[in-house]
Amino acid sequence: MADAHSKEIDTISGVETTGHEWDGLKELNNPLPKWWLYIFYATVVWAIGYWVVYPSWPLISSYTSGVLGDSQRADALAAYDAGLENRAKTGEQLIDASLEDIRSTPELLEFAMASGQAAFGDNCAPCHGSGATGAIGYPNLQDDKWIWGGTLDDIHQTISYGIRNGNDEARFGDMPAFGRDGILDEEQVTQVANYVGSIAGLEAEDGVDLEAGKTVFIDNCASCHGEDGKGMQELGAPDLTGSNYLYGKSIEAIKNQVNNPRNGVMPAWAPRLEPSTVKSLAVYVHSLGGGQ
């Protein structure tokens, strides 16, 4: 009765109070709208039904499976397994198809490009860069200067077996250490380095006899790089007349390479990756813009 007597009509809003008052503020008795209450009751009923029909309550080592036994996790795993199966089927098609067939078949090409890009990021980008533009000691794969050839077959061979890594099928080309091993003296190293620089467009050092350097080049270097310095891909001897110098394009860098050459090593990926992945890498690398 005390609560009933404490209720009153608010003079400003005209709404009955609940009888509760805090620091002079009286609580108005404004019930929730009927539509809101009905929606709330419906969500309660829906929740109860959901608990019964679908997996919901956690147990010690599992959970209630519900009347339907449905599971979004199971659906996701099934979709994942189906994707793997489909990928495996397409991968088998890549293994059986030639590189040219892959490039000319839209479905296989799309798969190879996606697979190759992912494999490149995981395995090749640490050396060649995420954009495949290379760095000092690591070739740029986006230009058309290929030491061992830039056709699809050439690239596939290089990726499969690598370079100077001990694999029986690896590419192998070894430049002698002309200075370190005493094949050439210091003056001859200077002469040939300046001559090589001159055919590559560099300015020779003062006082260096370029004709003598040419003679040294013909006698010691032309057998691999050719008398014109254009190189030989079958030997892995680079073109010395262009702009792409793997270890730096300067007279000093050329001297260092003649004296004590750095012969880079590339892993053989065929023993490490699936055959379909190796093919995908070859197709992807060839597509970067520098393929021949």
From TrEMBL:
The keyword Nuclease does not apply. Its cofactor is heme c. GO terms for biological process: oxidative phosphorylation; proton transmembrane transport. Heme c 1 binds at residues 124, 127-128, 266. It is found in: Cell inner membrane. C-type cytochrome. Part of the cbb3-type cytochrome c oxidase complex. FixP subunit is required for transferring electrons from donor cytochrome c via its heme groups to FixO subunit. From there, electrons are shuttled to the catalytic binuclear center of FixN subunit where oxygen reduction takes place. The complex also functions as a proton pump. Component of the cbb3-type cytochrome c oxidase at least composed of FixN, FixO, FixQ and FixP. The chain crosses the membrane at residues 35-53. Residues 111-200, 208-289 form the Cytochrome c domain. It comes from Stappia sediminis. Pathway: Energy metabolism; oxidative phosphorylation. Its main location: membrane. Keywords: Cell inner membrane, Cell membrane, Electron transport, Heme, Hydrogen ion transport, Ion transport, Iron, Membrane, Metal-binding, Oxidoreductase, Repeat, Respiratory chain, Transmembrane, Transmembrane helix, Transport. Heme c 2 binds at residues 175, 221, 224-225. GO terms for molecular function: electron transfer activity; heme binding; iron ion binding; oxidoreductase activity. The gene is ccoP. This is Cbb3-type cytochrome c oxidase subunit. It comes from the Bacteria.
